[in-house]
């Protein structure tokens, strides 16, 4: 996939140049021995078996930079061609959510810039380099369950010096009263439990649907107060 190539090329250009890309249904003749690495349990998911340790180390070694300017990243799943699977906050409700985040930043005397991230920049899909810069600067990630956060958490600061110094992650997820939105209790915790992240969840409200979601704004305030 194009996105896979883009990520690997950004992460490690020298490694990328060594890859032979085999197309679907293409046959490759191997002269000599061939070693295939596979986990003992396939698929290797939920941060299991140490595979994520190598990924985290690889990213940290190739991209150790941490910007001085910090941000809080809010993930918006609405109004972008790159988002599939809905679960977007209702538009007017999302504006209220962003307002509450702004107010909480001021209330806690936080100086981070609030970035509204939807994977787009100037009408085009944001480059991997730019997504890295956004998420590496983040002290807090906020938003609905989805690949915008579930993939880009890889770029967050790997150099946490203490538990309190970890990047905070507030994920909106469905519970038993909002299971119509997505798989009940769907979360990315399994993937990023090997990363230095402080994970929090906020459940969708019962009136949410698979296409349009809502969260309790008072619960959002309490969650932000707890994190900050």
Brief overview:
With 228 residues, the chain is of the alpha/beta class. Helices cover 32% and strands 17% of the residues. It has helices at residues 2-11, 13-17, 51-62, 91-107, 128-136, 147-150, 189-192, 217-227, and strands at residues 71-75, 88-89, 113-117, 120-121, 124-125, 138-144, 167-173, 197-203, 212-213.
Describe this structure in words.
With 228 residues, this protein is of the alpha/beta class. 32% of the residues lie in helices and 17% in strands. The chain has eight helices and nine strands. The protein starts with a helix and ends with a helix. The relative contact order is 0.15.
Distance from first to last alpha carbon: 38 Å
Identify low-pLDDT runs.
Answer: none
Strand content: 15-25%
By DSSP (H or I, 4+ residues per run), the number of helices equals 8
- Structural class, from helix and strand content? alpha/beta
Counted beta strands: 9
Helix content: 25-40%
Spatial order of strands in the largest sheet: 3-1-6-7-8
Mean pLDDT: 90
Write the H/E string, N to C: HHHEEHEEEHEHEHEEH
Radius of gyration: 19 Å
Overall outline: globular
The biggest beta sheet, please? 5 strands, parallel
């Amino acid at each position: 996939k194009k996105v896979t190539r883009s990520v690997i090329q950004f992460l490690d250009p020298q490694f990328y140049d060594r890859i032979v890309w085999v197309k679907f249904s293409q046959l490759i003749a191997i002269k000599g021995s061939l070693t295939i690495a596979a986990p003992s349990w396939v698929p290797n998911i939920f941060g299991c078996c140490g595979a994520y340790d190598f990924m985290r180390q690889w990213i940290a070694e190739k991209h150790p930079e941490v910007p001085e300017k910090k941000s809080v990243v809010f993930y918006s799943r609405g109004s972008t061609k790159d988002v599939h699977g809905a679960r977007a906050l209702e538009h007017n409700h999302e504006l209220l959510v962003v307002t509450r985040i702004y107010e909480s930043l001021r209330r806690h005397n936080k100086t981070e810039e609030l970035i509204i991230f939807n994977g787009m920049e100037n009408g085009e899909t944001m480059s991997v380099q730019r997504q890295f810069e956004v998420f590496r600067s983040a002290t807090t990630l906020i938003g609905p369950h989805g690949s915008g956060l579930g993939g880009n958490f890889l770029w967050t600061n790997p150099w946490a010096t203490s538990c309190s110094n970890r990047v905070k992650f507030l994920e909106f997820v469905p519970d038993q009263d909002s299971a119509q939105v997505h798989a009940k209790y769907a979360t990315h915790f399994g993937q990023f439990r090997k990363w230095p992240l402080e994970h929090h969840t906020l459940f969708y409200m019962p009136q949410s649907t698979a296409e349009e979601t809502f969260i309790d704004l008072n619960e959002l305030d309490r969650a932000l107060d707890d994190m900050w």
